[in-house]
Specification:
The complex is a heterodimer. Chain A is mostly helical. Chain A has 15 helices and 2 strands. By secondary structure, chain B is α/β, with parallel strands linked by helices. Chain B contains 10 helices and 10 strands. Classes of the chains: A mainly alpha, B alpha/beta. Chains A and B meet through helix 7 and helix 8 of A and helix 2 and helix 3 of B.
């Protein structure tokens, strides 16, 4: 029943979002929606490892940045068009996921230790990107404006809107697949109790590595999207902590381990952000607003905004987030 | 079916399990008893692959499983339950059992069917829709058993499934365990509830201070002076005999 409701909800919202550009004439609002879908997509990538498998990462941006550099360097140095470059970006993201996952999960890193090691990897890559030649170093990479499907660039904001919508819908389909597949059940079992999961025949190491590889692949594609939309890339953009925070924020605010949590979170945060900017135009204000929202959500809605729509559980149980915050070693 | 040869585990200077040999044959219910801190759970953890052994070897159906990961051992048909229950708290009872059932199928419907079947055997059909965190102690113990059984084991390692249960609940779970054995599953269990040990097991091993001190039928064990002294202290056996 749950699954059917998901699919109906998905089809209805997809129809609305597909039709939206015909009714919204303002380029500004189309751009805001594009950004919402992009954030929802990257939030969903975080959700797979963080929400479903319970492995929190603070450095999710590393896959985004690596994917962005992969397709951009392929384009600027080798002239490979981004429509092929995005495939390599996906592969690069998954490969980085494998490396980080293999190294940290094999040595048994969990909870805040794993989260911090991902942050360290992202920072390491930022410093590396700054110091090597082929990334353009601190100067950055400039991409040429060449609208067309081959370059994944579009003349109008509506083109990017549909591109972001496509990515977001794919991410929802991945989450739906997790909800009903054995792999998804195994990830959730790992989140709830890793030792018991292992006892019941789940190869927990392999499952966690697969999860981070999916996250990496999705992040890689997001990088290409971003590079082709904004046509400029430098280390602080590619490996910005801000994006790492945003992807976990939208997921926690919307509801971790749920299909629509990241999308709901992205909508709410961007709308709040736009409203706040309307009243006080101070750089960095969004971070303050995000911080306040995060504190309120964690305190009063540990299951996220989506928890409001769900039947209240009889007993409130500690979520994976509570365990991380309280420093429980099982988190 | 299961053979443990010269297994030793040291934690720093403490030898928790010291060159233990034991064997469990197919279709048996064998119990492992002993005072608190004797090393029973440590031995179980090694058999199930959760702890590495310092010395010795463990064979399951003739294949050495020492050094294997728990999930690999589970695939070979041996699965353990935990003394301190480890439910997937955020999931329902059905979802908990389905995780076990997924060990041998990729198909959601099949896993659900298997889980429902197992719930019926264990007697928790009415609890399937409940969250695992709302189960009572007895319910959680049953859930441990159900999840393990859903993986289609040939050999079940049960670590104190009766601890914390009242006499009625113990009688119920003893019947369930006998029922599981009758379906062809071999059972090796750690237990403190003597009534259940006497009632259930074909043979018992007694562990004290990491060493096996006795083996035999439950009746032989209960009469063994070495065992009585291990539980009640030095001289207890002769005092009891003198009465």
């Amino acid at each position: 029943m749950e699954i059917n409701r998901h699919i109906i909800l998905l089809l209805v919202s997809a129809a609305v979002m597909l039709a939206a550009p015909f009714f919204i004439t303002s380029k500004f609002y189309i751009d805001v929606l594009t950004l919402i879908f992009f954030t929802a997509y990257i939030g969903q990538s975080w959700n797979i490892l963080g929400g479903y498998a319970g492995q929190f990462s603070f450095g999710g941006v590393m896959f985004f940045g690596t994917g962005a550099y992969t397709s951009s360097i392929l384009l600027t140095t080798f002239g490979i068009p981004p429509i092929i470059g995005i495939v390599f970006a996906i592969i690069a993201g998954a490969l980085l996921g494998f490396i980080v996952g293999f190294m940290s999960f094999r040595s048994g890193l969990k909870g805040s230790y794993f989260a911090l090691i991902t942050l360290a990897f992202a920072e390491l890559l930022r410093v590396l990107a700054n110091s090597v030649e082929f990334t353009g170093g601190g100067v950055g990479l400039f991409l040429t404006y060449a609208p067309g499907l081959k370059d994944l660039q579009f003349k109008t904001p509506t083109g990017f809107y549909y591109f972001a919508l496509l990515l977001m819908l794919i991410s929802i389909v991945i989450a739906l697949w997790l909800e009903r597949s054995r792999f998804g059940a195994q990830l959730v079992a790992i989140r709830e109790n890793e030792e018991a999961a292992e006892a019941l025949g789940i190869n927990t190491l392999k499952c966690k590595i697969y999860a981070i590889m999916i996250m990496g692949a999705m992040g890689g594609a997001a990088g290409t999207f971003y590079a082709q939309k904004y046509l400029y890339l430098d280390p602080p953009i590619a490996y910005s902590i801000h994006l790492s925070v945003e992807m976990l924020l939208v997921t926690i605010v919307g509801g971790m381990g749920t299909v629509f949590g990241p999308l709901i979170g992205a909508f709410v945060l961007h709308i709040v952000n736009e409203i706040a900017r309307h009243f006080i135009d101070t750089p960095g204000l969004s971070l303050i607003v995000y911080g306040v929202i995060l504190i309120v959500i964690i305190s009063y809605l540990p299951n996220g905004l989506i928890g409001l729509f769900r039947k209240r559980m009889k007993k409130s149980k500690p979520t994976a987030l509570d365990r991380l915050i309280s420093g429980d070693k099982d988190a | 079916m299961l053979e443990v040869r010269g297994v030793t585990k040291r934690f720093g200077g403490l030898t928790a399990v010291s060159s233990v040999d034991l064997a469990v044959a197919e279709g048996e219910i064998v119990s492992l008893i002993g005072p608190n801190g004797a090393g029973k759970t440590t031995l179980f953890a090694m058999i199930a692959g959760f702890l590495k052994l310092n010395e010795g070897d463990i064979f399951l159906n003739g294949n050495s499983i020492a050094g294997m990961k728990p999930h690999q051992i589970c695939k070979f048909g041996m699965v353990r339950t935990f003394q301190i229950t480890q439910p997937f708290a955020g999931l329902t009872t059905l979802q908990n059992i389905m995780v076990g059932a997924y060990a041998h199928t990729n198909d959601r419907m099949q896993a659900q069917q298997k889980a429902e079947q197992v719930a019926d055997i264990i007697g928790m059909t009415s609890l399937l829709g409940l969250g695992a965190d709302s189960l009572t102690v007895a319910g959680r113990k049953r859930l441990e058993l159900a999840r393990a059984l859903a993986t289609n084991p040939k050999l079940l390692l049960l670590d104190e499934v009766m601890a914390g249960l009242n006499p009625t609940e113990i009688d119920e779970i003893v019947a369930v365990i006998k029922g599981i054995r009758d379906t062809g599953v071999t059972i090796f269990l750690i237990e403190h509830v003597m009534k259940a040990v006497m009632n259930l097991s074909d043979r018992s091993y007694v562990l004290n201070d990491g060493k096996l001190i006795a083996t035999g039928t439950p009746a032989e064990i209960a009469a063994n002076p070495v065992v009585i002294e291990a539980y009640l202290g030095h001289g207890a056996a002769s005092e009891m005999a003198g009465e």
